[in-house]
Design goal:
- This protein is mainly α and 104 residues long.
- It has one domain.
- It is 78% helix and 0% strand.
- It contains five helices and no strands.
- It is elongated.
- The protein starts with a helix and ends in a 7-residue tail after the last helix.
């Protein structure tokens, strides 16, 4: 499963970033303009909140398990989640969590 988690983390990095970079190239590199686009209608606002809640939940899970296990490398999933997305952060965390000796 480790290879699956790693492959999903890579895919979860590359695929969304393609769309983000494409959007920025077409609409200037203004992050606030992108945030406005995330709330263009009820559907996009719903998806934005869905991912925000998932990111916060993942962060709490990572923090709790990391503190318990003292496997500090797992904290890399938090910046990956907020800088790239849950599509990268979650499989990255599962990859780091599944490494030999990585269990609490």
């Amino acid at each position: 499963m480790r290879f699956v988690w790693l492959a999903l983390a890579v895919w979860g990095t590359i695929h969304p970033m393609y769309y983000f970079i494409t959007w920025f190239q077409e609409n200037t590199w203004d992050i606030m303009a992108m945030v406005d686009a995330w709330h263009a209608n009820a559907a996009t606002s719903g998806l934005t909140w869905d991912l925000t809640i998932a990111a916060v939940t993942l962060t709490v899970w990572v923090l709790v398990e990391t503190i318990q296990s003292r496997q500090w490398l797992r904290l890399l999933a938090i910046p990956a989640t907020y800088c790239i997305g849950v599509s990268c952060g979650l499989p990255l965390y599962l990859y780091l969590r599944s490494r030999p000796g990585g269990q609490a």
